[in-house]
Amino acid sequence: MTHSKDHADVKIHPPVLFLIHIAVAWALGKFIVLPIIASSPAIRNIGIALAGGGVLLGLGAFYAFTQARTTLNPHGSVKTVVSSGIYRFTRNPIYLGMALILLGFPLTFGNEWGIPLTAAFILLMNKLVIEREEAYLERKFGEMYTGYKSRVRRWL
Q1: Is residue 3, in this structure, part of any structural domain at all?
Q2: Structural domain for 90, as ranges
Q3: Taking the CA atoms of the chain, what radius of gyration do you get in angstroms?
């Protein structure tokens, strides 16, 4: 007998994956310097802007979910497809925000490891989280979600 769960079967909680990548960037930056770009006040300001943009995306997503009265928890039961606010432009503003923070935060402190780790983060988020969330949303909401998915890009 098949038991259908009313939540996405994600393999890792997204904030945990994010924090692992931040910790790895910090640790690698302590021991191995990447000669990708020269640290400068301009690079630090770019890092601050990227990280700040990431925080704003997360806040916009939180607001949209609050307005829709549904959960942000990928292990929770979603009540509706949120397609307003920032969700008109990206299906995953929280994860995009995490990627921007992962890219920007290390740059702010002269650590370039956020650059390659952001690519790894996006690949892992797609495979371990987003594909599973999308499968759940398609099962639960059918055409409502697939229509939204066809109109709005996954990341940007």
Answers
A1: no
A2: 20-28+39-151
A3: 17
Mean per-residue pLDDT for 13-29? 96
| C-alpha atoms less than 13 angstroms from C-alpha of 156 in its C-beta half-sphere | 7
How many domains are contained in the chain?
A: 1
Tell me the three state secondary structure of residue 113: coil
Q: How many CB atoms lie within 10 A of CB 10?
A: 19
| 56 inside domain | yes
Distances (CA, A) of 62 to 22, 23, 90, 129: 21, 24, 14, 18
- Asked, for residue 62, whether it belongs to a domain, the answer is yes
pLDDT digits (tens, 9 = 90+) for 67-83: 999 888 877 889 999 99
Confidence (pLDDT) at 3:
44
